[in-house]
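hey team, just a heads up i'm posting the complex here instead of the shared drive bc the drive is being weird again. everything in one block, sequence lines first with there labels, then the predicted structure for the whole assembly after. its two chains so it's a bit long, scroll down
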Amino acid sequence: MAVKRRDFARGALALGALAGTAIGGVSVRAEPKKGGTLVYASVSGPGTLDPHVASSAVELEVIHNLFEALVALDEKNATRPMLAAKAIASPDSKTYTFELRRGVKFHDGAEMTSADVQASMERYRKVSPNARNLADVARYETPDPYTFVIHLDKPNVVLLDVLKSPIFPFMILPASQKDKPARDIEVIGTGPFSLAEWVKDSHVLIKRFDGYVPDTSAPGRDGYAGRKTVYLDAARYRFIPEATTRIAALQTGEVQLASSIPSELRQRIEDRKDLAIREVFPIGGTYVIVNSQFGLTKNVLIRQAIVAAIDISEITDATGGVNKPNPWMSFPNTPYYPAAGTPSPWYDVKDPAKAKALLQQAGYKNEKIIIETNSNYQWMRTTMLVVAEQLKRAGMNVDVRVVDWTTNAAHMQQGTGEWNLSTTLFGPDHILGPQQWRPMIYAFPSIKGNDTLDAAYAAFFAEPTLEGRRAAWLRIQQEVLGNGYMVKIADSGRLSGYSHKLKGQSDYPGILQLWDLYLE
Amino acid sequence: MGRLIAFKVLQAVPVILIVSILAFLLMTLLPGDPAVIIAGDQASPEAIEKVRVSLGLDRPFLEQLGVWLLNLAQGNFGSSLMLNQSVLSAMGERLPVTLSLAGLSLAITLPIGIFVGALAAYYRQSWIDSAVMVIALIGVSVPGFWIAIMAVILFSVMLGWLPSSGFVPLTEDPALWLQSMIMPAAMLSLFQIGFLARMTRSAMLDVLSQDFIRTARSKGLSEWMTVGKHAFRNALIMVITAMGILISTAIGGSVVIEQVFALPGVGRLVVQGILARDYPVVQGVMLIYGFAFVAINLLVDVLYTFADPRVRYD
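-- predicted structure starts here --
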């Protein structure tokens, strides 16, 4: 089965086959002007620009402008070729053949070939924390400079979804970087910008790559892919950790774009005629995590009592920010989002009486339920304080403990520490789908020995049709959310501030994309 | 003098050793795992374990301590877990920023703090004294981050006089360097001016009530000579003590100021190191700050002997 440019989303392998309306469209703009340096205020600087090991937003918002992948997310979050001209999957889904675009240049002037793709794949499998998703890869082939073939041990119908991930992105590096250890590459990509200067903790300067070869098969930009046109001469990322100073830099005209504006400070920007706020939505989903391997919450009835006690609007009213209710673990308008009307009886139950009945059924004897939150993120702390009050209202004895985020995160990821409930935000999993969700689902609530979940995931990976995989994903969500391993709160976004001098922004809520932007 | 310096250096050795062990203990006993930070929020337990092993964080605690002390003895402060570079090189890149900030701050603090302190002492119990002491009290009481944010809003947003943040190296453009550093340095100085003015006032009040000042005045010496030469020289020893503390607080206070004004200095490095559990960075910075403070105290001890010939250590 061949998957080509605009037809890519129609293939059985493409996530976008069932996508409805676009999350966002390209803003209307008139006569873009070439030139100028955009100054962007970011919260902090990247620790690394090695795409194969990068997962934080501050790293990825530089990386996605310097490097490109074989395939990428389009604006409907479907898979679209980027450095590949087309991808062909064998009928048994055990062989994937990528035909590469010709004439694509690296920043050092060398042409990208299949040898570079193979070297990148080999390096990725060695250094990337996401390499486990390529465990099925048996071998590769490069029959000619423009063809790359992946052979799998067993069928994997979602391989392209793994390759399009915007976190730990499988970007193509020159073959010379193959043996470079993690975080130690020369920053050479095929992206529309090249690295000019990086002063740690101060700024990154990237400049337009005049040798960039755009994907001319697309009429314009399309999510992370499509035809990328660069109008800016350069972009300077300035790292300003303090929100007030970031806003001040925007107000004084020192920067034209500023990230992560706290909702309580948005008025300072909205009060100015020359500035505006952009709601970047959705970027993730917020969840209460329930530790299924510790104390009381081992008991499914206790977990369901917690689910019954939660009132979503109380939480989102208290935390503020950009939130919209959504009971599911996929964003609306993405391929795995359930059909309208699919019941979600676990969501926003806000029924203390039901919670009390479940507690009684579980034989609850006023034992402590430990909530762990952290001192670093206000919204997490507020969320858990509201949850604590809701559980108390349902008759539970709650103990709130505050630690730092690194401890809190480590406890959730590793299932260590003494806690029953905590909270976090999951980002791209909502777009990338069930295969990307799998490690999170098992790790955060410490799910072990759940045959229903294991069977549903096995069915997901074996299922050749998207419809079948959607059904398996629904069963997975019913198990995870219905049995209170996690409690979905809402889809959430973030605010950025910008000057009206900056034109050409897209509504697509992806990681910062500097192509097609221009300064008036 | 040689004996004094040798004695002080010898005294510093156990201090440095204790500081280094405390730094190591402090960071390793804190909960949290740098492997989780480095691998990222989305990483699987296997990926986190892979990072932990590659960084040697899976080794026993005593082995980690031993390796670190051994490396330290060889001048190797280790490599940052996050930055992929040695701690010394990471600090070396950022030290000019912090030294710029601390140096300019002291250049503002010393003349103003000493002058207003002496003025308050000379005009004691007048409105000048009260005004200086109220301002000094505000200077030492108001939180640094708050006054820094207020300064950004006033001088950058409302008046448009100065850039809100950022750093230009002195070697690149001295005028822009001054423009970028004057507000952070002034904000860092507020606490120090208050502290120094109070110390100077107190020392000058002591001296101005001495018999030799009365004698100087009785024999018809000008007021400028009496206060400026005789009184101030005698009050200087207290001011030198205060200077040692000031330099230390300038380096320590730079942590907050660098954060607010987005200055890429050592203070910001250490904050990021703490948040990311980058043990070698935090340990290295603590240790080098420990060295610096010991050196400053040594310098103060030596300066005493010049300021007051009565002071002898033998």
